[in-house]
Specification:
Largest sheet: none
Number of helices: 14
Order of helices and strands: HHHHHHHHHHHHHH
Distance between the termini: 36 Å
Number of strands: 0
Radius of gyration: 19 Å
Number of domains: 1
Helix content: over 70%
Strand content: under 5%
Structural class: mainly alpha
Length: 295
């Protein structure tokens, strides 16, 4: 199978899992505490990823030269992202949280241009601007007090913080030579110490018990939202590059809206209009750059 096709399929798996994660994540967040939820989520995901890495590649340890990068990816992409995600979805309606997550591509583009010297080009900037406008429209259309939680305006800010952590994770993983499954096991393991410290602090403060949360929802987050989605995303970034993979992340709000409609919940017309604008921006941003003719 061509390498780029594998990358696109990996991104598709990630987007589907993440787009459907907001409703389940909200239920988990309302029943537990963010550090404890994240600690159990990533511990079980690490056990699964490490077993798969040993089965497929015969090893779970990456080269020592990449240890610092993988540790930073674990702290940002799992510990930071996971805790901020649960803090956000507890106070934000699923469709609104997904729309804010739709800003991840813009953050990936901005960080790439500012810190990594990437030059997306004017058409891609225009496309990402349209996609961002679509995400903002969905956010505005779904941000009623009943849906978003009256008096809880910090929820969307936590979702935005999780998106920033994820954007940094994406760029750090772009040039790794380690197989994506091995790097996933390593980054998950790197996140565990700080997550369990936070979980113990929650327990000692009386905020939460260390018991395993709701098993069906946690199983979906472990196997789908973490192992399958992050493995697919790692494949996409390694085979397509961070900017091309970022285009796929714009589909997360569309999947979330489709999930809401599939579950029988009404989807207002303004939200549908926002998804159309987002899709148009994605289409423009995904167009390959035209090569200059050599004289």
């Amino acid at each position: 199978m061509p390498a780029r096709l594998i990358g696109h399929l990996g991104a598709l798996v990630a987007v589907l899992c993440w787009g459907l994660s907001f409703g389940v994540g909200r239920e988990l967040a309302l029943a537990g505490a963010p550090w404890t939820l994240s600690a159990w989520r990533y511990t079980l995901a690490w056990l699964a990823a490490a077993a798969l890495a040993r089965l497929v590649h015969g090893k779970t340890a990456p080269p020592a030269t990449q240890a610092r990068t993988l540790a930073a990816m674990g702290l940002l992409g799992h510990a930071g992202f996971g805790v901020c995600f649960f803090l956000g979805v507890e106070k934000t309606a699923p469709v609104v949280a997904a729309a804010i997550s739709g800003l991840e591509p813009l953050l990936i583009y901005l960080i790439g241009a500012a810190a990594f010297g990437h030059r997306p080009g004017a058409p891609r900037w225009l496309g990402m601007g349209l996609a961002t406008a679509g995400a903002a429209w969905v956010n505005w259309a779904g941000a009623s007090p009943a849906a978003n939680g009256a008096g809880l305006p910090d929820g969307p800010l936590w979702i935005l913080a999780s998106a920033a952590c994820f954007a940094l994770y994406t760029h750090l993983g772009a040039k790794l030579a380690t197989p994506p499954l091995v790097s996933l096991a390593a980054t998950l393991r790197a996140a565990l110490p700080i997550l369990w410290l936070g979980a113990c602090a929650e327990h000692l403060s009386g905020a939460a018990a260390l018991a395993v949360p709701d098993l069906p929802g946690l199983a979906f987050f472990v196997l789908g939202v973490t192992v399958a989605a992050f493995l697919g995303w790692n494949e996409a970034v390694s085979r397509l590059g961070p900017l091309a993979a970022a285009n796929w992340a714009s589909l997360i709000p569309l999947v979330a809206v489709a999930g809401e409609a599939w579950s029988g919940k009404p989807v207002p017309a303004p939200i549908l209009m926002g998804t159309v604008l987002l899709a148009a921006g994605l289409s423009l941003a995904a167009r390959p750059r035209r090569k200059l003719a050599q004289s």
